[in-house]
Amino acid sequence: MMILFWLAEAFGAVDTFFAVIILGIIVGA
Amino acid sequence: MVTQLTGAGLLVAWGGAMIALSYYIYRRQSVNDTEEFITAGGRAQVGLTTASFAVTWMWAGDILGVPQYVGITGVAGTWMYAAPAVLSSFVVIPFALRMRKLFPQGLTYSEYFIERFGNLAHLVVIFVILYTMVLGGVIQLFVGGTVIGGLTGIDPNIVMAVLMGVIGVYILLGGLWGSMTTDFVQFVSALVLTLVFVPLLLLETGGPGQVYEQMVANLGSQASSFLSMANFNAIEDLFLPYALGLGVWGVVSLATWQRVFAVRRDKTSRFLTIGGIGVFTTIAMYSVIGFVGLAAFTDVAPGNLSIEALGLMPDWAAILFLLVALMVLGSSVDSYLTAIASLTSRDIYYRHLNTGASDDQQLRVARGASIGFAIVIFVATVFALGSISFVQLLLIGGIGASALVGPFALSLFWKKASQAGFVTGVVVSQIVTAYLLAASYGIVVSTPALKLWEIMAVGHLVSTGLTAILSAASPDDFHFESIAQEGSEVVADGGVKGGDNK
To answer: Which of B145, B175, B329, B396 has a CA 20 to 30 Å removed from the CA of B496?
Structure first.
C-alpha cells in the first residue's frame, strides 16, 4: 500500500518509459 | 446539471467553430485532389501529426472508463487501462517503418494487400477495416450521446445527430487536413481538461492529502489493495482483453495509418513515440477523477464514479468540461470518418469498381462517403444504444484486430506468406472469434464460455497459426522490392519518377 502525472502531461508543451512504469508498479506496491 | 438551452448553445458553438476551421484549412491547403484529401500530401509536420494521433487515441470513453477501472481495482487501474492504449503506438512502429520503406506511394495501407497478394486478400482486409472503423465511430458516438445527453437533458439521439452532421460536413470540406487541424484544437482542449480541471477537482475536495485520507477511510479493509500499484486481482477481466484487442488496434486502424502516411517520412517513429507516451500521461490524469470519486463517495457504482465526481465541480466548470468532452469526442469520430471515406474512395471505388476513375471522381466519392457513412454510424449507434452495453461494444471493436495483426506482420516480413494462408487465417479467425463471443454472451449458442481475453488470444493464434502453416505448406516467393517500383508516380525515396517536380 504520483499525481508526476501532471508534470509529464504538461508532453503538451504545441522538402515535401516502460522502465518507469515497471518501477512505478514495484515502488507503488 | 447544465440546462438544455446551455447544452444546445454549446453544441451550436462547437459545430460552428469546427466547420469554420475546416473551411479555413480547405482554402489554405487547397484540398482539391485525392492525395491532399486522404494523406495531407504526405508532408504534415510532426507537431500537427503527433497532436492528431494522440487526440484520436484519447477516446471520449476514457473519461468514463479510467475512473471505472480505478473504482474496480484502485490505483492499479491507471496502468491497466493506459498500458494497452499505449501498446498500440509501440507495436505499430515496425509496421510503419517497413511500410513507408516498401510502399512510399501508399494512400491507404489496405492497398498494400493488392500489391502483396491480390484482390481476394484486399477484399477481406477491406471488410475487417470497414466494420472496425464503423465500430470505432459508433463507440465514440455512443459515449457522446450518453454523456452529453445525460449532462444536458437533451435527447441522446438529437445530440448524436448534431454531432455526426457537423463532423460529416467538416470532413467533407477538409478531408485529412480538416481532421488533423480540428484535432489540434481538440488536443489543446483535452490538455486544458487534464491540466486545469482535474487539479481543480482535486482542490475542490481538499487536495491530494485529503483525498488519500478519505480513500483510506472509505475503503476500510480494501484500502491496502486499492492503494497498491501491484493489485493484480482484476488483470484477467480488465487488462488482458484490452491488451490483446485494443492493444493492437492501432495496427488495424486506418486512422492510425492515415497519420503514418501523412507525416514526413523521416519523423515516423518520433510522432508514434511522443504521441503514444502522451496518451499514457493523459489517461493517468483521468485516473485522478476516480481517486476523487473513491474519496467523496462510499456507495457509487464504478461505472458512475466519473459523472458523480465531475458533479463536484462548480457549474461554470461543468459547462467548460462539456465543451472539452465535445472536442475529445469529435477528434476520434472525425478520424474514423476520414478513414472510411478514404477506404470507400480508394479501396472500393478506385480499386474494384472503376479502375480508370479520375482524381476528381475519386475525390467526389470520398466526399460523398463522408456524409453517407456519417448517417450509417448514426443509425448504427441508435440501434446499439438500445441493445448492447458499452463494454460489449468496446470489446467487439477489438475482434478485427485479433484476426489481422499476425497475418499482416507475416506478410510484411516473410516472403513465403501466401494469399491462401492470409485469407484463410483472417476469415477462419473472424468466424471462430464471432462464435466464441456469441457463446460467451449466450447468444444462440452457450458453449464454450471462454473469458474475453481467451477469445482474443484464440483469434490471434488461429489467424497467425493458419497463415503460417498454410504458407509453409504452399509458400509464396514474394520480392518485396517489386512493390515500390510498380504503378506509382512517387518512387522509393519519396521523390517523383522522371523529374524533380510533379
So the answer is: B175
> In sequence order, which residues have a C-beta less than 8 Å from that of residue B133 and are 6 or more positions away?
B253, B254, B255, B336, B339, B340, B343
Give the pLDDT score at B253. Answer: 83
3-class SS of residue B490: strand
Nearest 5°: phi and psi at B490? -115, 125
Query: A9–B285: do the CB atoms touch at under 8 Å?
Result: yes
Strand partners, B490: B496
- Per CATH, is B4-386 categorized as 1.20.1730.10? yes
pLDDT given for residue B43 in this prediction: 63
CA B384 to chain CA centroid, Å, is 18
Task: Tell me the chain B residues in contact with residue A10 when contact means C-beta distances shorter than 8 Å.
Answer: 195
Please tell me the distance in Å from A10's CA to the nearest CA on chain B. 7
Residue B57 is predicted with a pLDDT of 67
- Cell digits for B348? 472500393
A13 touches chain B (CB under 8 A): no
Q: B71 is written with which cell numbers?
A: 473504482
Q: Which residues contact B226 (CB under 8 A, 6 or more apart)?
A: B73, B74, B75, B215, B219, B294
Distance CA B95, CA B403 (A): 16
Q: Report the SS3 class of residue B245.
A: coil
Main-chain dihedrals φ then ψ at residue B263, nearest 5 degrees: -75, 155
- Rounded distance between C-alpha atoms, residue B65 and residue B68, angstroms: 5
Q: Which of A3, A6, A29 sits opposite B195 (nearest CB)?
A: A6
Indicate the SS3 state at residue B149: helix
Q: How do the domains of chain B map onto residue ranges?
A: 4-386, 398-488
Residues of A in contact with B83 (CB under 8 A): 21
Cell of B175: 478531408
> A17 to chain B: nearest residue by CA?
B277
Phi, psi (rounded to 5 degrees) for B144:
-60, -50
User: How far is the C-alpha of B28 from the C-alpha of B42, rounded, in Å?
Assistant: 16
Quote the pLDDT of residue B186. 73
Q: Which residues of chain B have pLDDT under 50?
A: 485-502
Confidence (pLDDT) at B496:
38
DSSP state of B271: H
